[in-house]
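Much of our argument rests on the idea that a fold can be written as discrete symbols. Part of our work consisted of pairing the sequence of a single chain with a tokenised description of its backbone. No coordinates are needed to read the tokens, only the vocabulary itself. The record that follows shows the chain in one-letter code together with its fold in token form.
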Amino acid sequence: MDAGKKVLLDLFAGSLRFTVPVYQRRYSWGEAQCRQLWTDIVTAGRHPDRTHFTGSVVWMQDGGIRPDGRSLCLLIDGQQRLASVSLLLIALAEHARRHPDGLCFSADMIVDRGYLVDKYSDGDARYKLTLSGDDRAVLRNLTDRLVDPGRPVSGGADSNLERNLDLFRGWVGAIGDANVVWNGLQRLEVVSVTLDQGRDEPQLVFESMNSTGLDLETSDLVRNYMLMGCPVDEQAALYGDYWQPMERRLRGLSFDAFLHDWMVATLARPVPRGRAMYSEFKRHAADSLLPRMDRVRGLLSSMLEYSESYAAVRGAEGVGDAMVGHRLGSLRDLDATVADPLVLRMLAMWRHGRVDRDGLLRMLGDLESYLFRRMVCQVSSNGLNKLVPSLIGRLDGDASDNDIADDADGADPAESFAAMLLTETVRSTRMPADDEFRQALLGEDLYRPASRCKHLLAGLENRNHPKDPRDFRDYTIEHIMPQNAMAHAEWRGMLEDPDRFPLLVNGLGNLTLTAYNSELSDGSFTEKRNRMVGGYGNEYLSISREPREADRWDETAIRRRGERLATLALDVWPMPEAGGQALLEQRGHGQTGEHGNSAVDFAALCGRGILKSGDVLESGYAGVDATATVTGDGRIRLANGETFTSPSGAFRRARELATGEDMQVNGWVAWRLPDGRPLDSLRRNDGTASVRHAFWKGLYAYAATRSDFIEAYGDPSRRKPKETTWASFGIGSSYCHLDGIVSVRDGYVAVDMYFTDTARYARLYGMRDRVAGMLKDLGTVDWNDPDTDRKNRLLKIRHNADFNADMTDAYQWMVDTLLAMRRIRDLLD
């Protein structure tokens, strides 16, 4: 590597010819960056004793010096700056042609000195700077027109180069003395960094440069990382076959967002955003001993395939199936982008024949129900960042099990997915049941956010159009009883209690869709019903049946319509359905919320000494003869020396080596211990699960002897004990829930009251002295601050427990506390 200070214009005047490799991002400077360059040049031009440093230019010679003395060079960093200076030189030459007097430079001088083009050469040697992609032709046309102004114009107003050239033309024409600009260019300095081919690593140098201008996107870094290290003759092919089609398909979408979702969908684990995502990508890309070109093609091929699905998920392209497209549109309306990687994985399973069309539609429908119910019930989405990758991994595992099966009894992915949602019972990731969903529909202000409200009403209406869903983009939300009804005597007369107006007016029973919102406005109910255009009497929507037939629109009418639509919503967004076997297989998996089992990964098993260095794993997968060993740092080493952190990644590679097939496999099931047990058995028999199971079994048996508990909660003797860290106890309330908690590792049991209604929680918080008195013999109460920035609130009390001793004391404490908590809840009634 050789670096030194150099006048920028000297790079233009010499024998070097710069070519921008295909892996570099396109020319992307906008007005802000061009204006900063212009300001720096003008400032330097007005102060003859001053120079201005403007960053670095990094390049590497591509081959030797040509017979004509020209040196072709790959431009690693500095494209934006050199291209912008080229545009400024064109603008100066054009200005000099129009206004030659009084200038210390001319158009002929700029052309003849070869700042932009050698008019006596052809090919790449003709041009000082050769850009990539569509920019190449545009810049060449601009410079050729400088030599021959009679050449036809090409490029177009859509070109960023053309737009910035027009900026420089305007600034040069307005400055008064263009000599200032020319003099400033002579004083613009850079650090010119020359890399030695075969010795310096361009990618590492590129990443370490702190250039001025626009920050690189993560996708820019990824593209450079994959293509920069490939042979030059391969770069153009890889760019044209893979990266360019992705760029065109994702035009208008965030490539970085796609890259993130692709990584989550394929790695089945949470992935950070920003520069940390690039580090994660490099670790993933390097976790293989495949030859570089094979590795790059594999990654690019996967990205290209997923880009098609991503464009469909984000609505930029169709998916080739009307009903699947409708389902994707419904999910898109929810704006729950955290679930997009899961949808991408579902579409990949469909495209590869691992789930049929009906199964895909069922999974997409269940996912919409899960997300929408949580939104309506105001369940925080914080837990979804961990749940989504977990669901992807479990789907892959079940699909792999199905692939392993020798008969038709293998797991159905759609059935498994339904079971996953039904058994995800922890607080932050649970799916609200029918009673909670219905209560929220009838008891909440549903008008805001408007996007959720419109999704609700459109979904209810389209229940009657299953084969031809209607498009309601041109419709708006209509309040049948208007929002300013209290200003009109006729509307006030329809209210039994004016204090209930705020909830009534924004409640489900009073909301509908219309294309004539401004026409209906705030008229009386009779006027709105009888209006010839847009009136309820002429409305065809099934959800507007009641106002079409009613004579009055009072509290009773609103309540009855709300009840009907809430019942209909339970059918539109139903709870998933799954058979007993699927539920049994999924129970206990993936509990990622506050009370869930901590995920036990491979490194954790090694750290606890359950697996030791040198332990051997064997394939239990038909047709794959493979072994692996456990390393001292908690990884899996295949026979060929490749190491992996996850069993699934290791077995996927082992299968590829043995069969040539690259397919996701659940390594926890496929790898076997020497005694024939699946590796997953070590994870499932961690020890704490069996203690939790014994605790709940003992608690239910003890509670069944307490008549006061049976009266309050029913007979628990038939309740099936689980291995989870928590159990829910119903108290007939939609706004709060009681949970019993057992933490084996931390040595305590607890009971909490979990509020979804923050107003009621605030009321109870105001009675905290009274509550403390009711619980004083049971322990210290822990309250959430009622003003905390959260949607939910928690009242919790805990009790130390020795799980190696007799648990009768813990059973008695939990039963007494559950009964006390129920009495505390009754204070609110």
Observations:
- Residues 210-214, 400-409, 590-599 have pLDDT under 50 and may be disordered.
